[in-house]
Amino acid sequence: MKRKHSLFILLGFLLFHFTSAQVVINEVQYGSSSTIELKNVGSSTVDVNNWWLCYLFTYRQLSASNITVTGNTMMAPGDIVTISGSGLSLGTSSDLGIYNTNSFGSSTAMEDFVQWGAGGQGRESVAVTKGIWTAGDFVPSVMNANSTIEWNGGGDGSQFWFEVTNGSLGSENIILNCNGGTVALTGGGTSAQVCLDGMAQVLSFDSTGTSGTNFAYVVTDNNGIILGLPPGDMVNFQPAGPGECWVWGLSYSGNITAQLGDNATMVPLSDSCYDLSDNFITVFRDSVSGGDMITDEMGNDTVQVCLDGMPQVISFDSVGNVGPNFAYVVTDNNGTILGLPPGDMVNFQPAGPGECWVWGLSYTGNVTAQVGDNATQVALTDGCFDLSDNFLVVFRDSVSGGSAITDDMGNDTVQVCLDGMPQVISFDSVGTFGPNFAYVVTDNNGTILGLPPGDMVNFQPAGPGECWVWGLSYTGTVTAQVGDNATQVPLSDGCFDLSDNFLVVFRDSVSGGNITDEMGNDSVFVCIDGTDQFVSFDSSNVVGPNFAYVITDDQGTILGLPPGDMANFAPAGPGICYVWGLSYTGNIIAMMGQNALQVPLTDGCFDLSDDFLVVARDSSNCTTSIEDELPLGSVNIYPNPVQDLVTIELSQAIRSEVALLTIHDLTGREIYRAEWESIQDRQNVDTHKWDSGLYILTLQTDVGVFRSKIVKE
Fold first, then answer.
1. Burial of 535 (C-beta count, 10 Å sphere; 0-12/13-18/19+)
2. Taking Cα atoms as reference points, which of 353, 383, 390 lies closest to residue 369?
3. What is the pLDDT of residues 159-213, one digit of tens each?
4. Which of 602, 580, 606, 611 is nearest to 511 (CA)?
């Protein structure tokens, strides 16, 4: 099938019939040597002797004396004449029309038209009306001084005109001398099938009967749309995707101007002579695709089976596979084929523990692969084939609770002190495997105490004792419950495995309780008068294996660690001190001078008492001995704690003629003193100006002495 610039003969002559043009402008040389070439492309003889030329509204008749016509003006089909002379002067930007009469505004009189250098010139509108030109269209000016513009015979419009160096005025146009010949595959044949399986699919081509300066191949789809312009005589069709394409030969001079996406049968393919081959090579690209997703029937790309003696059947599903045949291939994780199942399911129970991959295989022809072959390295069929983009991973008996469960510091044993504060332990695991993981807390017999939702537990509410924290790797859903024995019942409705070890948590319960003197008072006064001043202590609500007393000043600084439950305060001198209870495990590490409220007091668990015994030491007003202390309940103080006004009320049994009421702060400074008449049974004290804190009240009567703490808010 001979083509001359977009099917020159087949398409070009059809265009001639559309325009009714028989004699056409065939070549133009403008400038100082202006020359025009006409050609009869019709099938009958035409007399052009009295025809007219029109350019930029300049008119010349071919029979004029200043016009030279070379050739026979009685133009037979195929004849060429040239027009030159002193009466012809074409500039670098002009239009040019040929007319059969001097009716220059008539589209009927106009036979052909071309313009170059710019659009909208001269009689462009007449050519537009005639339908042989597009408004504004023009042929670019030539780049070389001796060049001409030649028509390629393809039709009307600037796209069918090209610059030709040293043109062919008076003879057949240079651009019409290209021949695309015929094309075939190397080795013969004009049809091929390639398998798009991810491997390179290279075909090479040959041509015969070509002529022209240059030759190339053009790849189009089956509509002529250009898909590729390969640089040589071979093409890799793998990236093209499935479908059908045609490979043409292209003979050309000049430069290829066609681009991807152009229609090779409709646009100029070069800026000079060109011709497509009479035939094309058909390439069928078979689309086999193993699919882009292989899953189990639930859509999972990873599945675990428990090899527990029962059948473990997994059904497969695929998405995106293309091709006439499809099968599944089971390999190990190196690609070695373990099985070629006849359907879409496999029982993995006999396979033993391990990991395997299930691929999809789309193919033509027959499967040739065998068990033991590597599916990624051998031909799997005698036709086209493609493995799926992914594979289903099947883990067989591949749940592991791990080899080490520790706290977040790496310890496998930890001690928590149940002192009323949260005791949160974070856990860590090593060597776990499986889709789900949780921790299980049991007692030391394996009975489940808790199934925490995360990787930490607050052990404070649990009370004293010992517990174990296990790791649990599992599939499915946890079915174990609190009270089950974790070593004896199924822990999930799928696969599960407890960790090889467990974290041991010892929960020690210590409480410092409450502290008073042996009479039950929470404050006591001692007189520093040179004699021993022993005070015995008592405690209640204490919890823990060990207990001691700690004596501090009012800031918490340790003044003493008595070995028993009494202390002689005579050597201490006047002042205030606190006696605390200390419940603990391990050994006391606190030292004199440290602050008991700020440092660890033992190397184990410890807890100071909730309150303390206040011991007020004074060297004045020592008129009453310790035997004269008034009993509890003989004096009522309220409200306590107090905000503004506190009331001190005596019982009837201890009223006397005279009583002295004093109140001191913890530094020993007296801030209140009052006499109490016998006719009174209560005294109100205004405290609203006092600083917040602890104060010591002392009431001295002829019956005895009463001391108590007052808390100012």
1. buried
2. 383
3. 888 887 778 899 887 666 678 999 999 999 999 888 876 778 899 999 999 877 7
4. 606
Which residue from 653, 710, 654 is spatially nearest to 686, judged by alpha carbons?
710
> For the whole model, what pTM was predicted?
0.39
* The pair of three-digit structure tokens given for residue 427, joined into one six-digit string: 């856990």
Task: Report phi then psi at 510, rounded to 5.
Answer: -130, 140
How far, in whole angstroms, is CA 366 from its chain's centroid? 41
CB 494 within 8 A of CB 462: no
Task: Kindly list the distances between the CA atom of residue 646 and the CA atoms of 185, 524, 687, 690, in Å, as whole numbers in the listed order.
Answer: 115, 20, 7, 12
Separation between Cα atoms, residue 149 and residue 28, nearest integer Å? 5
Question: Phi/psi of residue 16, each to 5°?
Answer: -60, -40
Q: Residues with Cβ < 8 Å from 192, sequence gap 6 or more?
A: 185, 203, 281, 282, 283, 284
Residue range 388-406, pLDDT digits in tens: 999 999 988 667 888 878 8
Residue with tokens 């493995």: 387
Q: 537-558: b or e for each residue (b if 16 or more CB lie within 10 Å)? A: bebeebbbebbbbbbbbbebbb
Nearest CA-CA partner of 100 in 24, 191, 15: 24
Strands 385-387 and 110-116: unpaired
Q: Give dist(CA 652, CA 634) in Å, integer.
A: 8
Nearest Cα residue to 130 out of 118, 117, 114: 114
Per-residue pLDDT reduced to its tens digit, 91-120: 999 999 999 999 999 999 999 999 999 999
Of residues 564 and 523, more confidence is placed in 564
Q: Average model confidence (pLDDT) for the chain? A: 86
Q: Report the distance separating Cα 661 and Cα 699, nearest Å.
A: 5
CA-CA distance, 583 to 550, in Å (whole number)?
Answer: 10
Cis status, amide bond into 239, omega within 30 of 0:
no
Cβ-contact 94, 56 below 8 angstroms: yes
* 65: Cβ contacts below 8 Å, ≥ 6 apart: none
Max Cα separation, the chain?
164
Q: Which position has the higher pLDDT, 551 or 32?
A: 551
* End-to-end Cα distance, the chain: 111
Q: Please tell me what DSSP assigns to residue 485.
A: B
Distance CA 366, CA 364 (A): 7
Rounded to whole angstroms, the Cα distance separating 159 from 260 reads 18
Q: How many residues does the chain have?
A: 713
More confident: 315 or 31? 315
Examine the pLDDT at 357 and tell me if it is beyond 80.
Answer: yes
Q: Which residue has the tokens 């005279």?
A: 658
Considering Cα of 648, then 654, then 655, then 656, what sign does the dihedral take? negative
Average pLDDT over residues 276-285: 93
Q: What is the residue type of 137?
A: D
Q: Which of 8-17, 33-42, 371-380, 700-709 has the lowest mean pLDDT?
A: 8-17
**Neighbour-count burial of 222, counting CB atoms closer than 10 A to its CB (0-12 exposed, 13-18 middle, 19+ buried):** exposed
| Alpha helix stretches (DSSP H) within 67-159 | 124-130
List, in sequence order, every residue forming a beta bridge with 100; answer none if it has no partner.
none
